[in-house]
Amino acid sequence: MKIFFSTMFTCLLFTGSLLTAHAQEQPVTKESFACINLKHRGLEKVRQQFDAGRYDAAATALLSYYRNRTGMLRPNFDLDELKRSTGKKLSPDIREAADNALLHKFKPHKAYPYYDFGKDINWQLRPVPDQLFNTFLHRTAFWEPLGKAYWATGDERYAREWITEVRDWIKKNQPGAYPDDKDYAWKAFVVSFRLNYWSSYFNMFLKSPNFTPAFLMEFLDVYAQQADYVLANYTPDGNHRLFEAEHMMYAGYSFPEMQHCSTWSASGIKVLNEEIGKQILPDGVDFELSTSYHITVLTTFLEGLKIAQQAGAENDFPESYRNLVKQMIDAVGKYSFPDYTFPLYGNSFLTDKAQMIKSYRDWSTVFPLDQTIRWFATDGASGSAPDYHSSALHNAGFYTFRSSNPLDMKSTVMQIKAGPPAGFHSHPDNGNFVLWVKGRNFTPDAGSFVYANVGNIVNPKRDWYRSTKAHQTLTLDDQNIENKAEEKKWTPSGDIEVLTYTNPSYEHLSHQRSFLFVDHAYLIIVDKAYGSATGKLGIHFNLQEDSKPVVDQAHNRINTTYADGNNLLIQNLNADQIGLKATDSFVSYQYQKEKPRPAFVFEKPKANANAQTFITILYPYTGKTAPNISLKENAGNDYEKGVINITITVNGRKRDIQTTLLQ
């Protein structure tokens, strides 16, 4: 008897929930099929019912078609994955996210906690002054845990809630529902992400009894509306346009039953073919000069190739497209360190070796014969090492000094940025460098912390992380510079490797910076500031947060104190008066997370039109005691003319250095 009543109670709850869900449904009409190509192969039963005016039956037949179709291209979560996931234990964070979603508590961006959007969901809630939070909200990625929980448990609460929330979102977020919707819910970039996510959710919940024929027609109608919207509102330029193109390819190939599917996918292919020549420099680097965004853009261009291959449309991308994608992969190896991390130029965030090897393995599937990609994909276990140590990406202005091959963990590597003007994700930081020695990044780039201001509300954190003074280069009165570097010399071989560039940093002040990589062991930086501008000159140095430096102001020296003996000395070697002071500095490896770190600036005044010079040595050493270093200028040495004839003495051992800074 108890079993009977328990079963009966469960059935009543389930029936009641279905009735509640069905009560929200709109009637299926002839117009419900406007977005469907009823002549598409496999829809014969649907068309038969449609032609007979039996629209409910036609929708039922269409749902049956979708539940049984095979061989379709889907971005994620196909029915094979459903079989693998059924009954699989959920991770605690996925369970938490799914259960919170049942309560309308969402976490659109990982940098923030869960927020309660209310019993009657307020899709316009803006709890933090960060535009990304609300654009991520309207991407709707936070629904994915509902799907994973549904797959793992079969609990219809998750499916029912997703359907309810989708309908609520549609009802409250039609185009024009609020004044700035084109900055959020109806920003084409955001809409394109919804297309991608919703095609996955479609697969995740398709077999739920709550996924009714009426809901199917609502879903397909809004999906087509959004794809048509992106088609008519592509972002004019930049990486957003690339994401939109990729997602339109997925939309077209995921729903070939749609009237406009071919137009959607063709638009994506066309945009990617056009933009790769506009956004990728001849050396293979993304024109925004952000190391993280370069990989993101690379992934998007590569994904276009993979989608086309799966759809049998690979010939829609010419060989020149493939070659440039290959160059983009090669560029990553050149600007990376042996531990697979890279400088956080522009709006970038820290990656790790496991993630990068995973990326290389993915890239290797598209270029299986490339031995260098295989070498990086296997951590050097197979394939072939590239035929360079030091290297340059001249168009981007990314330069690398290396003492050994790109995966030698005992090597010394300096990455330098001295490039052209760039896009939104770039910072005013020409001359910036990162020094990595034997597995330690001594001078990490600051990162970005946050991307953008919100409307007219200025975010001082964004401004600081973008500022020139937050980077390792020269400033005048701590003001931001202009990026427009011109390479003057690059000799990446021999005992003294040289890079020199000039940059018109300020209206009446240019900066010439030269790097000398001596004996593959240490670096000398020669800075020359010239022009009629006057003010306070400074060259900035930022150390890793755990470096615990010792500061010797009397001798303009700073040295780290790592217990393992892998340390760095930074010393100014000017003969004239130079000031050394500590400055406030931070580093951000993840979005909206930061750590304070030691930072210093060598300063001197520029009182007239005469050029001013800084000479600085960066000397890695082993042990707890920093070496004693001095510089002697020899006959003919002339920093202003770019003629170097000096003697560096390290603990009594002399090294004569003779070279020129200009070609």
From TrEMBL:
Q: Which residues form the Heparin-sulfate lyase N-terminal domain?
A: 33-375
The record's listing under InterPro entries reads:
Chondroitin_lyas, Hepar_II_III_C, Hepar_II_III_N, HepC
The Heparinase II/III-like C-terminal domain extends over: 387-599
Q: Name one GO molecular function term.
A: lyase activity
The residue range of the signal peptide is 1-23
Which Gene3D superfamilies does the UniProt entry name for this protein?
Answer: 2.70.98.70, Chondroitin AC/alginate lyase (1.50.10.100)
Q: Which UniProt keywords apply?
A: Lyase, Periplasm, Signal
Q: Where in the cell is it found?
A: Periplasm
Keyword match Oxidoreductase: no
A Pfam family that the UniProt record links to this protein: Hepar_II_III_N
Which Gene Ontology terms of cellular component type are present?
periplasmic space
Q: Which NCBIfam families match?
A: Hepsulflyase_CFB
What is the official name of this protein in its record? Answer: Heparan-sulfate lyase
